[in-house]
Amino acid sequence: MADATHGLGGLKYDPSKRTRAPEWNVFAALVLIVVIFEILNRFNLGWVMANWFGIDWLWNGEDFLTGRSFLFNTRENVDAIFNQQRLDIMILQVAIVGIIALGVTQVIIIGGIDLSSGSIVGATAMIVMSFAQTAMVNGNPNPKAIFGDWAMDLPVIVPIVVGLACGLVAGLINGLLIAYTRIPPFIATLGVMVSARGVARWWSNGQPVSFPTDAYGSLANGDILGTLTFGVFNWQGQNPAVVFVVLAVLFHIVMTYTLYGKRCYAIGSNEAAARMSGINVDRHKVLVYVIAGVLAAVAAILLTSKNLTAQAGMGMMYELDAIAMAVIGGISLAGGRGSIIGTVLGAAIFSVIISGFTSIKLDAYYQEMVKGAIIVGAVVLDQWRQRRRAKG
Q1: E strand or H helix at 94, and its extent?
Q2: What pLDDT digit, counting tens, does each position of 163-216 carry?
Q3: Distance between CA atoms of residues 227 and 239, nearest Å
Q4: Is 83 within 8 Å of 73 (Cβ atoms)?
Q5: For the segment 342-376, what is each residue's pLDDT rounded down to a tens digit?
Q6: Secondary structure (DSSP) of 333-387
Q7: 58-67: long-range contacts (C-beta < 8 A, 24 or more apart)?
Q8: Which residue of 109, 129, 174, 370 sits 20 to 30 Å from the alpha carbon of 165, by its own alpha carbon?
Q9: For the chain, how many helices (H) and strands (E)?
Q10: DSSP of 258-325
């Protein structure tokens, strides 16, 4: 086959020019990071630095062999291979931001950017919790009530619909500004980011909104997986992770096999060509930003249900974490390339890094420094791939 010519021009099939899917590279990076943290947990890096090089700021006084494991269970009284508690924490801590990242991924693929998703979470959280409150707390009237009795103990569907509507409106504003006023996405979403955060602080004069109904609290703290599988599988308190996985599968199918997904890639690859081919680019951009806004609202609903409270500062920096997940997962900031699978793998890498730093007891400010360096490195790698692809 490799030596045979076919078609016009005598073209030859050259197997050396085949390239594997970029998601495999991301998966390989994920495995490598897990292995590194496994080594760092079993062997005390601080001991090595202190005793071999005289650098003792990383040493916490432990011996060289710690007896700990990052991923596997080392306790004899627990009958399990993996450290289930750590796995649950790793999955849960990125599930909510991962939902936002699914929307941000679609925005980046069409060549845009969304800086407003974290602030949309904050504003939506405050508004949603106002419609999810219970009238009585320990036999007394709710001290955090925002509205009167008419807004107390409402059916759980009411705050859900209100929250989704908030996300839809915010996404619609983003999309209309970008598509029909030709404002650069960075500026448009930056303006919405500032405005939405202002709404979050204005809604209750900066005070937290608390005490939701039991039904609302169970949205994130219940066992939706057990309900959906009629008790075959149980995952108590991990509803955000279940929602993240379901939405990831849904949008992978949408982006891979539907006209919506093909138009996203077409617009991101060459917007002028997409217009020439008959795609209503402006309308499609609005739709993409609306979906991103709704997904941010879903994250806000799950976040407030998990915490049983809403604060104006909720969602702070979530937009940057979501963008980082997408970029680490191989999504090109130039648009037109990337996948939902890549973003899920990027979220997994993000989770492993956060949990890994915690497991080796690295201070939070060092974690932020390293996390920033990883994000910059991922963008540099993306730029290098683009230049290499341009050279053929």
Answers
A1: helix 84-109
A2: 999 999 999 999 999 999 999 999 999 999 999 999 999 998 889 998 999 999
A3: 11
A4: yes
A5: 999 999 998 888 888 887 777 777 778 887 887 78
A6: TTSS---HHHHHHHHHHHHHHHHHHHHTT--HHHHHHHHHHHHHHHHHHHHHHHH
A7: 60/361, 66/41, 66/42, 67/42
A8: 109
A9: 15, 6
A10: SHHHHHHHHHHH-HHHHHHTT--HHHHHHHHHHHHHHHHHHHHHHHHHHHTEE-TTTTTTHHHHHHHH
CB 104 within 8 A of CB 264: no
Lowest mean pLDDT among 186-190, 233-237, 288-292: 233-237
Asked if residue 297 lies in contact with residue 166, where contact means CB atoms within 8 angstroms, the answer is yes
Task: Please name the residues in contact with 5: beta carbons below 8 A apart, sequence gap of 6 or more.
Answer: 11, 12
Amino acid at position 54, single letter: G
Q: Which amino acid is at 11?
A: L
Structure tokens at 145: 């009530």
Amino acid sitting at position 73: N
265: Cβ contacts below 8 Å, ≥ 6 apart? 109, 255, 336, 337
What lies within 8 Å, CB to CB, of 221 at 6+ separation is 237, 239, 305, 306
Q: Check residues 51 and 159 and name the one with the higher pLDDT.
A: 159
51 phi/psi in degrees, rounded to 5: -90, -25
Residue 251, classed as helix, strand or coil, is helix
Give percent helix, percent strand, percent coil of the chain, each to the nearest 5: 65, 5, 30
Which two structure tokens, joined as six digits, stand for 42? Answer: 């079993």
Distance of CA 147 to the CA centre of its chain: 32
Q: Which CATH code is given to the segment(s) 21-34+83-391?
A: 1.10.3470
Contacts 24+ apart (CB under 8 A), 371-380: 371/324, 374/324, 374/328, 375/324, 375/327, 375/328, 378/324, 378/327, 378/328, 379/327, 379/333
Domains of the chain by residue range: 21-34+83-391
Q: How far apart are CA 311 and CA 316, in angstroms?
A: 11
